[in-house]
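Practice problem 4.
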């Protein structure tokens, strides 16, 4: 339980960072790799561009939401620390 108490805050922000970077990576992948239907041209199709923009927008939405609820995330981290102290 000592590990949970010491790394609760890091773990929360690490998961948020992984989700944002995964969305950005999927968006970049959709823009960089041509779809199989449009394999003859090097430009991505309209559907893949829309999907990539949706990934980027969702990553931005998560980032803004994290900035807005930063104090609640800190409170959740403190609650996890106290709960881990109570259990052990």
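Answer key:
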């Amino acid at each position: 339980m000592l590990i949970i108490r010491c790394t609760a805050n890091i773990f929360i922000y690490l998961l948020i960072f992984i989700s944002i970077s995964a969305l950005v990576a999927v968006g970049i992948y959709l823009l960089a790799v041509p779809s199989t239907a449009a394999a003859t041209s090097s430009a991505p199709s309209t559907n893949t561009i829309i999907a990539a923009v949706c990934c980027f927008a969702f990553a931005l939405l998560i980032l803004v939401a994290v900035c807005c609820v930063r104090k609640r995330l800190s409170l959740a981290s403190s609650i996890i620390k106290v709960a881990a102290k109570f259990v052990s």
